[in-house]
Design goal:
This protein has 10 helices and 5 strands, in the order H-H-H-H-H-H-H-H-E-H-E-E-H-E-E. It has about 400 residues and is an alpha+beta fold. The protein folds into 2 domains: about 160 residues, no CATH class; about 130 residues, Histidine kinase-like ATPase, C-terminal domain (Heat Shock Protein 90), CATH 3.30.565.10.
Length: about 400
């Protein structure tokens, strides 16, 4: 089965056509590289000059799609041209074939062709001079060098520059891709952070509003309705304050306003009082000491979300909140009754558990939540120092 070569490049067609026309013009006016009566001319007359010219022009068509074939065939055509009257255009096209063989050939050819042509140039310089002992013999080496080694070296230099430019462009594209990946990851991380903040800030108050509004609607008791509306108003105001704080975080650095301070563990008493006002029987026991700010915020949000979940899902009974510092870790534990619950309930999406787990993981800590018999327990262990984080 015959191998079908790719179609020649348009520029190569132009080069081949231009070289052929130029060579025919030189042939037409009778201008050759040597006189017809020179002793080295084996094929005298004008017509033998056309064969090397035509073959070399055909090699120009293959200079890009089959550079090795073009070089071998062009070398044979040049050898034939040396025993005819010769055509200067054939020599010029051969130099271009050598140049293209290095530039467009395989990496092995790009290394091998300059070496071979360099050795031929040295041999063509040394051997004739050693045989004839005349300075004119050195011109043979000069001619071989001009026809072979010079275009091969030029092709190697251009190829190296092209490869360097390609490598630089690839590095720039990789850098841009990595920067885009970093930007996307930063945006994703920031969106996740804001989602956690929004959920933790508002879910507690909205859950209380939903439960008490359901109770007010289901009971035909003015006193109960009034008490429920009072709780609803308190949680609405508190939720609005939390939303303002979130807006302050979003505007941080814009120059519009200063962001509100993030909650700390000093606010646990107020958080517990708010949970008690919503109907939970909460006990708090804290043994803290100095805690880094990120750990304070994470612990506060875990307690807040755990109380919100207890308000929505826990059975009647005590809710115990315990924070203790042990062995360089801050242990947070919130337990509540687990089982069938009477009264209004608020459906959950699971986002709160995901947010608590993410907060613990970002600090290098651990988080678990689940039933233990009749008690639902949330446990988080957060490192309070950089060196205490687990690997």
């Amino acid at each position: 089965m015959a191998v079908r070569l790719p179609r020649p490049h348009r520029f190569d067609v132009v080069v081949a056509a231009g070289g052929l026309l130029g060579g025919l013009l030189m042939w037409g006016i009778g201008l050759g590289t040597r006189p017809a009566d020179e002793p080295t001319v084996l094929f005298d007359g004008r017509w033998p000059v056309l064969l090397p010219l035509l073959v070399t022009a055909g090699c120009e068509l293959l200079r890009r799609v089959a550079p090795r074939t073009a070089l071998v065939t062009g070398t044979a055509a040049l050898t034939l041209d040396t025993v005819t009257q010769g055509n200067v255009v054939t020599l010029i096209m051969f130099t271009d074939v050598v140049y293209a063989a290095v530039l467009y050939g395989t990496p092995a050819s790009a290394r091998r062709v300059p070496r071979v042509t360099g050795l031929l140039t040295v041999a063509a310089t040394v051997v004739p001079f050693a045989l004839w002992r005349v300075p004119e013999a050195l011109l043979i080496g000069v001619a071989v060098g001009v026809l072979s080694f010079a275009p091969a070296s030029t092709g190697l230099i251009v190829r190296n520059h092209r490869d360097a430019a390609l490598a630089a462009r690839l590095r720039a594209e990789q850098t841009a891709l990595l920067a885009e990946m970093d930007r996307a990851q930063a945006v994703t991380a920031e969106r996740a952070r804001m989602a956690r903040e929004l959920h933790d800030m508002v879910a507690n108050h909205l859950s209380a509003i939903a439960i008490h509004s359901t109770a007010a609607l289901s009971l035909d008791d003015p006193d109960t309705s009034k008490e429920a509306l009072s709780v609803i108003r308190e949680n609405s105001v508190a939720g609005l304050d939390e939303m303002r704080r979130l807006i302050g975080i979003l505007r941080d650095g814009s120059g519009d306003r200063e962001p509100a301070a993030a909650p700390t563990l000093d606010g646990l008493d107020d958080l517990v009082e708010g949970a008690r006002a919503n109907g939970l029987h909460v006990t708090l026991r804290a043994d803290l000491g100095e805690v880094p700010t990120p750990v304070e915020l994470a612990a506060y949000r875990i307690v807040q979300e755990s109380l919100t979940n207890a308000l929505k899902h826990a059975s009647p009974g005590p809710v115990a909140v315990t924070l203790a510092r042990r062995n360089g870790m801050l242990d947070v534990r919130v337990s509540s009754r687990y089982g069938h619950r009477d009264g209004p309930r608020v459906p959950g999406s699971g986002a709160g558990l995901v947010g608590m787990r993410e907060r613990a993981a970002l600090l290098g800590g651990t988080f678990t939540a689940g039933p233990e018999g009749t008690v639902w327990t949330v446990r988080a262990s957060l490192p309070v120092a950089e060196g205490d984080r687990p690997e």
